[in-house]
Design brief:
Helix content: over 70%
Distance between the termini: 17 Å
Number of helices: 9
Oligomer: single chain
Radius of gyration: 18 Å
Strand content: under 5%
Largest sheet: none
Shape: globular
Length: about 210
């Protein structure tokens, strides 16, 4: 599907606004219950859905203005697809039955179910000019690794962790945390490889 397709532009704009509104509504709700702002933005889901909203709105803008797509946008989009796919997988595998506290049900559905699917489908229906190579896949891992380091250092300092599987007191110590992190890294790598494979097959099919 072309980047300038009107249906794609409208869908990207609407879904981008939806996920950003969901972030804003949940933030207001958390602030009303005196939940620290830094804690709120320490959730990987919040960070990635915010990024997904921006990527979708940028895509809608580029399509509406028929502007040339910069190379960095394709790279950012590919990374976001990987992040959001992992958000969906990790939630279903590890957090689906965890008490989500004050998370509103419609926001939970939007951030953990809808948006991961949306970003993957968007990648499938609108092919980027340039897919992720080995170097860009390695760069994609930087953000999650920095995030984990931040969570562990801050958690050790303040005693709060956004996810139970990153809390050594809940999972049996740092060796188990390391095992969970290793599993997440593998998930990120596999997701990145799949994104690249899909891109190459799409272009090969188009060439034939």
């Amino acid at each position: 599907m072309s980047l300038t397709n009107p249906a794609l532009i409208v869908a990207r704009a609407a879904l981008g606004v939806l996920t950003l509104v969901a972030v804003a509504v949940q933030l207001v709700s958390h602030l009303a219950s005196a939940f620290p702002v830094l804690n709120f933005f320490s959730y990987f889901t919040i960070l990635c859905n915010s990024l997904a909203g921006v990527v979708l709105l940028l895509g809608a803008y580029l399509g509406a203005t028929k502007a040339d797509v910069p190379r960095w946008y394709d790279g950012l989009r590919a990374a976001t697809v990987v992040y959001m796919a992992v958000v969906g997988v990790v939630f279903v595998a590890l957090l689906r039955n965890v008490d989500l506290g004050g998370l509103k049900p419609w926001i939970n559905a939007t951030h953990h179910y809808l948006m991961p699917v949306v970003m993957v489908v968007d990648w499938l229906v609108c092919r980027p000019r340039q897919g992720p190579d080995a170097r860009s896949r390695m760069v994609t891992l930087v953000f999650p690794l920095v995030y984990v380091i931040y969570v562990l250092l801050r958690g050790a300092a303040v005693g709060w962790y956004p996810y139970p599987f990153l809390n050594p007191a809940l999972v049996g110590g740092y060796p188990m945390v390391a095992a969970y992190v290793a599993g997440m890294v593998v998930t990120f790598v596999v997701a990145g490889l799949l994104v690249g494979v899909v891109h190459r097959r799409q272009h090969a099919a188009q060439a034939t």
